[in-house]
Amino acid sequence: MTARRRYWLMKSEPDAFSIDDLQRVGTEPWTGVRNYQARNFMRSMQVGDGVLFYHSNCDVPGIVGIAKVASTPYPDPTQFDRKSDYYDPKATQEQPRWDLVDVSFERKLARTIALEEIRRHADELGEGFALTQRGSRLSVLPVTAAQWKLLLSLE
DNA sequence: GCCAACGTTGGC
DNA sequence: GCCAACGTTGGC
Predict the structure, then answer these.
(1) Tens digit of pLDDT for each residue in A34-84?
(2) What does the pLDDT read at residue A1?
(3) In terms of Cα–Cα distance, which of A81, A77, A85, A127 is closest to A101?
(4) A76 CA vs C8 C1’ separation (Å)
(5) A15, A125, A131, A154: which is deepest, by most CB within 10 A?
(6) Alpha-helical regions (H) of A15-102
(7) Where does the record place the EVE domain (predicted)?
(8) A37 contact to strand C (CB, 7 A limit)
């Protein structure tokens, strides 16, 4: 018995890892999330869940593509790697702190759905939508089916 | 358990 | 590059 497909939005800085990078590699482990709320969302992901791929910290922040969850959650290997920027000395193999999922490319959007445009639909998206919440920096966040539909209708 | 200091995120 | 907002750390 599998639960109904769910939806997420995941942020990435295009300088570090862009939608084109994901298209090139096909599937990528979503390493480096070091925020408990974001981690907990990844822990609840299931294979096949829909992902809105979002470019942050760039000229035109916004949704640029669609991906999907391609694995169940497992420990982020970079937490054990002393040479990694994401190394966490408090994490052990026995008790990992950080989990991730693999994300696989589905398609690029015909155009970027800019944050500025998304904000104009803030009322329809609802107050609980973390992307447009004042001050929110969450890099992995849930999207309802209605929000998914609305956002993609802007494409 | 409080909270000041610090580091990070990410829009602008 | 700036800086507001936020999360984490660590002294007490």
Answers:
(1) 999 999 999 999 999 999 999 999 999 999 999 999 999 999 999 999 889
(2) 62
(3) A77
(4) 20
(5) A131
(6) 19-25, 36-43
(7) 6-153
(8) yes
The set of residues with CB closer than 7 Å to nucleic strand B is A 11, 13, 34, 56-58, 61, 115-116, 119, 137-139
User: What pLDDT score was predicted for residue A27?
Assistant: 98
What is d(CA A26, CA A24) in angstroms, rounded to the nearest whole number?
6
Could you tell me which CATH class the domain A7-146 is placed in?
Answer: alpha beta
Domain regions of chain A by residue span: 7-146
- The per-residue pLDDT for range A85-110, each reduced to its tens digit, is 899 988 888 889 999 999 999 999 99
CA distance linking residue A1 with residue A16, whole number of Å: 37
A13: nt with nearest C1' to CA: B10
Å from the A144 CA to the C12 C1': 44
Distance CA A132, CA A115 (A): 8
User: What's the CA–C1' distance between A135 and C4, in Å?
Assistant: 8
